[in-house]
């Protein structure tokens, strides 16, 4: 069970301008515009993950089994397709997001370095403390999980990672920085109503992430790196990032399962 100090959970009551929905319902609704709504944190994540991938790829064995945990529309599943002979499994509990991941990645599989690519609907929140993951998820060499843990209690997230990864495997994890999370969260504007739609969100601190990871047998081998938005970033991040200039918005870490 999470302690009260592990995460600040923001589920404020609905208003005429902002409505709060379960995470699954939010992403089912967000899926059609997720990749095109100018989300600056996604853009920042895409930039920063390129610095992490060389190390991540270097620690993997040949022909690795890779899991994109919370793959969404496949934005970073596509990065895993650069790995020679990789066997890739993208997991998400939103069927609408999974369909977009399939549409993005399947057409380019034959021209990629990957050997295989599959997507599967799976909800890590349904994983009980004494439970186990499906057999086909087990034995992964690497997990990629980007901008996901904001929506998951930390013990639930690392329980899933521990069940999926083999000993010596690695997790590349990125998330909204707690400085940004203290005053904002993931969400989108519904163009039909003008309302902001937001899911369940946890403002995990970096210290909490590392502590919880350690209790599940993980240790950091890269980072954590914290990223503050700079004025010069706006050319690539877009104008929606302007109000976040000089604010830490992102962090990333690579962890090894002992």
Features:
alpha/beta, 258 residues, disordered N terminus, 12 strands, 3-stranded mixed sheet
Describe what this molecule looks like in 3D.
- This protein has 258 residues and is α/β, with parallel strands linked by helices.
- It is 28% helix and 27% strand.
- It has a seven-stranded mixed beta sheet with strand order 5-4-3-6-7-12-11, sandwiched between helices.
- It starts with 8 loop residues before the first strand and ends with a strand.
Widest sheet, order of strands: 5-4-3-6-7-12-11
What kind of sheet is the major sheet? 7 strands, mixed
Number of helices: 8
Rg from Cα: 17 Å
- Mean model confidence by pLDDT: 93
SS elements, strand count: 12
**SS content category:** alpha/beta
Low-confidence stretches: 1-15
SSE pattern:
EEHHEHEHEEHEHEEEHEHE
- Report how far the terminal alpha carbons are from each other: 22 Å
Percent strand: 25-35%
- Shape summary: globular
Helix percentage: 25-40%
Describe how the helices and strands are arranged.
Elements: E1 9-10, E2 18-20, H1 23-30, H2 40-58, E3 65-69, H3 77-80, E4 87-92, H4 95-105, E5 116-121, E6 140-146, H5 154-164, E7 165-176, H6 178-181, E8 188-189, E9 196-198, E10 201-202, H7 206-215, E11 218-228, H8 234-237, E12 248-257
Parallel strand pairs: 2-9, 3-4, 3-6, 4-5, 6-7
Antiparallel strand pairs: 1-10, 7-12, 8-9, 11-12
């Amino acid at each position: 069970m999470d302690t009260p100090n592990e995460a600040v959970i923001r589920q404020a009551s609905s208003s005429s301008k902002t409505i709060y929905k379960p995470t699954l319902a939010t992403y089912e609704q967000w899926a059609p515009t997720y990749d095109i709504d100018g989300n600056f944190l996604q853009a920042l994540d895409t930039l920063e993950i390129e610095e992490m991938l060389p190390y991540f790829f270097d620690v993997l064995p040949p022909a690795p089994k890779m899991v994109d945990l919370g793959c969404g529309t496949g934005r970073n599943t596509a990065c895993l397709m650069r790995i020679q002979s990789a066997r890739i499994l993208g997991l998400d509990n939103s069927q609408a997001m999974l369909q977009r991941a399939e549409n993005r990645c399947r057409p380019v599989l034959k021209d990629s370095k990957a050997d295989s690519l599959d997507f599967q609907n799976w909800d890590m929140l349904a994983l009980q403390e004494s439970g186990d993951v499906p057999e086909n998820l087990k034995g992964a060499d690497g997990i990629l999980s980007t901008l996901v843990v904001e929506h998951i209690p930390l013990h639930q997230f690392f329980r899933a990672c521990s069940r999926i990864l083999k000993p010596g495997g690695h997790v590349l994890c990125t998330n909204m920085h707690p400085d940004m999370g203290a005053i904002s969260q993931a969400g989108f504007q519904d163009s039909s109503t003008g309302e902001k739609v937001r899911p369940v969100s946890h403002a995990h601190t970096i210290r909490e992430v590392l502590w919880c990871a350690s209790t599940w047998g993980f240790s950091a081998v890269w980072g954590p790196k914290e990223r503050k938005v700079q004025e010069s970033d706006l050319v690539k991040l877009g104008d929606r990032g302007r109000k976040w200039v000089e604010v830490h918005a992102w962090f990333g870490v690579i962890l090894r399962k002992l």
